[in-house]
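Technical note accompanying the year-one report. For the benefit of new consortium partners, we illustrate the data format agreed upon in the data management plan: each record pairs a sequence with a structure-token string. No post-processing was applied to the example shown here.
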Amino acid sequence: MMTQNEIMALADEHIMNTYRRVPIALVKGKGVWVYDANGKEYLDFVAGIAVCNLGHSHPKVVAAIQKQAENLTHVSNIYYTQPQAEVAALLVGHSFAQKAFFCNSGAEANEAAIKLARKYAHENMGPDKFELITMKDSFHGRTMATITATGQEKFQFGFTPLLDGFIYAPFNDAEALEASITKKTCGIMLEPIQGEGGVIIPDVSYLAKVRDICNRHKILMILDEVQTGIGRTGKLFAYEYSDIQPDIMTLAKALGNGFPVGAMLATGEVARAFEPGNHASTFGGNLLAMAAAEATLKTIIDEGVLENCRKMGDYFLSRLQAMMAKHKIISEVRGRGLMLACALSVEGADIVKACQEKGLLINCTGGKTLRFVPPLIVTTKDIDEAVAILDSALEAK
């Protein structure tokens, strides 16, 4: 095996500079732990950025991928396959939706949602209804359509002109949202909790107000649950906390527990707007991805993972709140389930680096927000160890 320095040098020479990488090369993972090429272990509270909800190398996911690889890895979507049908049935059976479309990432899922919303509007509202309202400080992906949907200029800089048909409203402000609706509006697209925006949790009644606005104006409600979905907040989908149902929902990240897979779900009425040839994805619903997704979903749904997420999330939140009382640079602690954050009064990069050096991986979003998204199988012992490392890193500030 190459040394850590050799891996980093080879990557720096040949891979485009699109990531601000941490100077470690990870080579192995097990549960909540990852290991670098030098053999150092890290408690992983990034989890691929809310991807490895069952931790690394979960035995049921590994076994499912191995078993499928022995039979068939890929065929075109012009043929039926059992794994696709079974995963679609699982998602539909545990959500509001009647139909699923499979792709490979959150950006692809959001692209599919944008296209479906426009197609539905064109057929049912008229060709002048094509505009989507998205939220300021949102994040929906890196394609041209999804960076346009993203309400943060830093992701759009250098890529203008952006696509037409998107306007932005402040998050968690139902009155301002409704005032943004025009005669061209066909839908509202938002995250139940803004992840990249800093783990911003809206008022408990906000999603219900958005649903009511959509109903009254006869427009679509699209939820981006790429980060919140598949158990991250303690329920399979975050919208379940609000007792509402969207028209379209997007998923990715944790759906395959690390294997690339995305999905766009919709009601039967809205899904009918897509006909053969309207949208496609060569690798969407790939058989290995479907094996990983099925194993991930069944494990999370059937084996107490959601309950553990809620319990550990409450415990972690209480430990972080105690830290806020001790360290004055923490201005706010917020979170739901195991999607948590500490807002800081100072830049967080040095704290992230100090934690990494002490064996804890976390990340910082927006410059001053520490984000914690550990695997949902995390224990109180793991959390206590992470808090001790964070405490030590904060002491040095």
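Partners are asked to follow this layout when depositing records. The two ends are 37 Å apart (CA to CA).
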